[in-house]
Amino acid sequence: MLKAPDAGEAISGVFGSVSLVSWICLLLPQLIANYKAKSGDALSMKFLIIWLVGDIANLFGALFTSLAPSTIALASYFCVADLIIICQCSYYNTVNARRRSRTEQRRRDSSTATHDTDATAVVSDASEDEPLLERSRRRSESTGLPGSHRRHSVRRAESNLDPLTRIITGEDDTPDSNPWLHNTLSLLAVWIIGAAGWFIGFKMGVWDVSDGSGLPDEPDAANPMALVGMSLGYFSAVCYLCARIPQIIKNYQEKSCEGLALLFFLLSLTGNFTYGASVLSYSQDKDYFIRALPWLLGSFGTMVEDFIIFFQFRLYSPERQAKAAGTP
């Protein structure tokens, strides 16, 4: 017969299960956003690489400290997911860079051929003005709304496709009419699935209420592998804490969050909050709190950075940018 968990263990288990669902779904919104935009310019590669380093350290830390197989499996999933989104961004960045290079080369060739033609004075004047107008148009485009041209400019040449074709091929640029509602419903689904998953798992005997903290045991000084594992855990927490800084700087420099999936950061906020709440609600013992401190700093510190990115979403929204530029 299963031992009924006390209130702290139950709350910790539910929060931990919601956190697990959040992490599993974390990268899906951004992967979809990159696919639709056919671009990975929105994400800072430094952000992704530091995050990958943190996940790798987390995986090896779990292996060295002999954590539960489920924890090791989840850490492995994080590494695979990181590699997938890094490969996706690298692919789109390479393809778009080559496409821009070919476009610029054709424009230069066309400009050279125009200047070399022997035509009438009117045609000659028009030919000479055309590159200037083209450069002026590109300059005004690049200085209008900072960052607003960087993800979708590659696809403008395909704008003559009919709407049905754009939807089928993933080229539909129609903005979400109510993103906050859809994101709220997505988060609500994560909470429901997480809570239901813990309840079903407990009934099936999957969760062990005797140790639901999700933290490694206190390392034994006689076991160097455990000490290495704990050190890697601390290092991974530092990586998670530092990973978003390049993304925040990139958003600030470009004055844009276009191409970033808001749900990606909402799921991150949910995962970090529920993980920290799970750890704190499991036990309030002083020694336990000290042992959990690096993970708590990594979770709650990352939440602060997520709130900064949310502020950037608001600050650099197209509506505010257009209002600041005086566009009616």
UniProtKB/TrEMBL annotation:
Chief location bin: membrane
UniProt GO cellular component terms: lytic vacuole membrane
Swiss-Prot/TrEMBL keywords: Membrane, Transmembrane, Transmembrane helix
Record carries keyword Transmembrane helix: yes
Gene3D superfamilies, A to Z: 1.20.1280.290
Membrane topology field: Multi-pass membrane protein
Region annotated Disordered, chain positions: 100-156
Transmembrane segments: 12-35, 47-68, 74-92, 180-201, 221-243, 259-280, 292-313
Record Pfam families: PQ-loop
An example molecular function term from Gene Ontology annotations: basic amino acid transmembrane transporter activity
Reactions catalysed, as given in the entry: L-histidine(out) + L-arginine(in) = L-histidine(in) + L-arginine(out)
InterPro entries: LAAT-1 (IPR051415), PQ-loop_rpt (IPR006603)
Ubl conjugation found in the keyword field: no
Biased composition (Basic and acidic residues): 102-118, 132-141
Protein name as annotated: PQ loop repeat-domain-containing protein
PANTHER family given in the database record: SEVEN TRANSMEMBRANE PROTEIN 1, SEVEN TRANSMEMBRANE PROTEIN 1-RELATED
Species per Swiss-Prot/TrEMBL record: Podospora didyma
Gene Ontology biological process terms in this record: vacuolar transmembrane transport
